[in-house]
Structures are given as C-alpha cells and as structure tokens.
UniProtKB/TrEMBL annotation:
InterPro entries: DHFR-like_dom_sf, RibDG_C, Riboflavin_Biosynth_HTPR. Pfam families: RibD_C. Gene3D superfamilies: Dihydrofolate Reductase, subunit A. Residues 3-185 form the Bacterial bifunctional deaminase-reductase C-terminal domain. This is Dihydrofolate reductase family protein.
Length: 199
C-alpha cells in the first residue's frame, strides 16, 4: 500500500497564499512569489507563466511525484486554479473535496468531485492501486488530513518571502504532531523539506 503525501508551499511566516486569492489570482496578491521555484523564476499573473522547474527544485519535485498515482485537493484550490484549464495536470485522477458535487466535470477531465474526506481518501487510495496519494491545497484540506491521522509524509517548500497576510497553513490547527526530516533540497527560490509524520 502506498503513502499519503501532503505537500504545499509556504512563506517564511507560514502563509500559503497572499491576501485576496481566488480565480485569476490563485496565490493572492504577492503570492506568486511562493511559486518562483515551480515556474523557474519570477512570473506574474498578467504576464503568463509556465511550468519550468529546474535544478534542486526539479530534483525535489521529481522525487515527490515519482510514485504518486492519485490526488486529493480542495474545491478552493480547484476553483482558484481555474480547474487547470479543464484538464487534470497531475498523475492519476484528482479527487476534489467539495459540498457542490452537482457540477461534476466530465470523467475525461481527470477530476472527480466528492463531498466527504473519508470518501475522497478511499477512492483515491483505490484509484492509486498501491501507488502514493498526494494531498494538495488548500491548507484546510491538509489540516483535515493531518488531524485525521491520514498523512504519512508532509512536504513543505518554504519560499524566501514574508507575506504578512493571506491564508496560513496551520491556522487553527491544534493537534500535536511529531515530524522526522527525511530529506532537504534548497535553491535560491525555496527550501524543500520532506518530513515523515511520526504517529
């Protein structure tokens, strides 16, 4: 059976988005700096961007997704990302946790809407067929998964920026969790740490 790996990028002060995140500005005002490592350098919402990860960032990313066969994200991330243009860009099917399942897109998009955290993980685990299941944003979905004891590994990429406002990764989280450092990668754009969640 595979692992459940939660991954997300934060600022040094713990924000996963800047303020006013949403469709067309998925990482909020100033939040695009969080993903310089993904885009291979500075980018803007207006100027367009592409996936150009390289160097130590690529080494981290490739290792992270090498065994992933399905994923779970929240509806907020799905909407803020503009449904990734209508096609799931990640390995395997992506299960979107949402209370609004009636607008389920066509199966060929690679997205599956589910209303319950347990159902999302059960279906993702089955779809992964022994591979790993990734848990992406938003922060709330990662907090729920951690609180439920479902996460085996937590990967946090910390961008060298202080946002001062937005959405925090661990806002309101009150569970005591021990972590063990598994590996670290660092570049000018981020420090990536993979932690094993100690039960």
């Amino acid at each position: 059976m595979g692992k459940v790996i939660a991954s997300i990028t934060t600022s040094v002060d713990g924000y996963v988005t800047g303020p006013d995140d949403g469709p067309g500005r998925g990482l909020g005002r100033g939040g695009e700096r969080l993903h310089h490592w993904v885009m291979g350098g500075p980018w803007t919402y207006e100027g367009g961007h592409g996936f150009a990860v390289h160097g130590p960032d690529r080494e981290f990313y490739d290792g992270l997704v090498a065994t992933v066969a399905a994923g779970v994200v929240g509806r907020g991330m799905y909407d803020a990302a503009g449904a990734w243009g209508g096609t799931n860009p990640f390995p395997g099917p992506l299960f979107v946790l949402t209370h609004r399942t009636a607008d389920q897109p066509a199966a060929e998009t690679g997205f599956r809407f589910v209303a319950d955290l347990d159902e999302a993980f059960a279906r993702a685990t089955e779809a992964a067929g022994g591979g790993d299941v990734s848990v992406g944003g938003g922060a709330d979905v990662i907090r729920q998964a951690l609180a439920a004891g479902r996460v085996d590994e937590l990967a946090i990429s910390t961008a060298p920026v202080v946002l001062g406002a937005g959405k925090r990764l661990f806002d309101g989280f009150d569970r005591d969790v021990d972590l063990e450092v598994v590996e670290v990668h660092s570049s000018p754009y981020a420090t990536h740490v993979r932690y094993r969640v100690v039960r």
